[in-house]
């Protein structure tokens, strides 16, 4: 807020410098004006200032406001009688009080003027209080109607039983489903809306961004002794994770576009799972079995071949049909077990202690728990199957599964860091020391 202009007292000629800041105390204002007034009034009367006033301002009294006091002074001089010290003190006090009062009035008026200029007008209260409250209610109701119209204009969210058959996936999510949108633009706009897929989209969208950052940082600050094989196996892992998460959030974004788009992106989603699985175990097998060339090659070829087979099969239309659900599940479980079997193999040939330090075995077990736990919650639709309708938007089983996938991938990355460090620095566990 700006400072108020300088107020000049026309009667006494002293300047009252007030500010419109509300935290400035009246005492400060009074002290300032008292000092100014004393000097100016004494100047105006032609009297000598006291010792305490010698250093005060002496030109303020030259204003037009000195007329009244000048006349008093001149009349006293004309009569040849100098006013006594006591009379001067009394007169000064009266003039000071009068001037201070006028200064306050002017300052208050100035504050009101500034406030009325800077603040919006407020309806009068008192008798108009009821009208004011009624008007406020109408404004709020109008805003709510406007927001509802905007939401309704964007799309409708409906109950599960109103969905077409190809969109009826989870009957325990009662309300909040998107209808077929038939527009990619509308599908991507729905990323920023609240519905049953909002959590599924954002969990893997944010996961994808996180892995892009981790991959960029890791590959740009790699060890000096990294060779092209090290960069390749790390890139395979990061590529699999980023592609999987990307296909996943894209699938959840556009799967309500139309039936054909739904089928296409569900295939890509399956491919992403296969790529993440293969990408996770390639660096693990590469570093873990580097001293066992045969097992090294057999396991790497097996996981890559099985992963490629999963991707090819995922692209068949029949693979997505309900009657092939067991085949689908069995194929992906086999793909996952291809990574677990080498872990136990390593324990058998090297021992548990070496498996922990050189093979990141504990990370492997934690990763398996996360994957299996998330998959079981997804398969049994927990918790929405226990409380139908309560987890329509947040904390539904598919979101939990998504979070488990991200956590498992992060655990896997940490395990890869451990075993790659052991391999590159030739650190052996105590059994081989
Ligand atoms: Zn998903």
TrEMBL record:
Main localisation: membrane
Regions of biased composition (Basic and acidic residues) lie at: 20-33, 91-105
Q: How does it sit in the membrane?
A: Multi-pass membrane protein
Compositional bias annotation for Polar residues: 9-18
UniProt keyword annotations, A-Z:
Membrane, Transmembrane, Transmembrane helix
Q: Where in the cell is it found?
A: Membrane
Q: Which InterPro entries match?
A: AdipoR/HlyIII-related
Regions crossing the membrane: 201-219, 231-252, 272-290, 297-316, 328-349, 361-381, 393-413
Give me the ranges of the annotated region Disordered.
1-123
Comp. bias (Low complexity) = 63-81
Question: Which PANTHER family does the record match to this protein?
Answer: ADIPONECTIN RECEPTOR PROTEIN (PTHR20855:SF52), ADIPOR/PROGESTIN RECEPTOR-RELATED (PTHR20855)
Q: Which family does it belong to?
A: Belongs to the ADIPOR family.
Protein name as annotated: ADRL-like protein
- Name its species: Mya arenaria
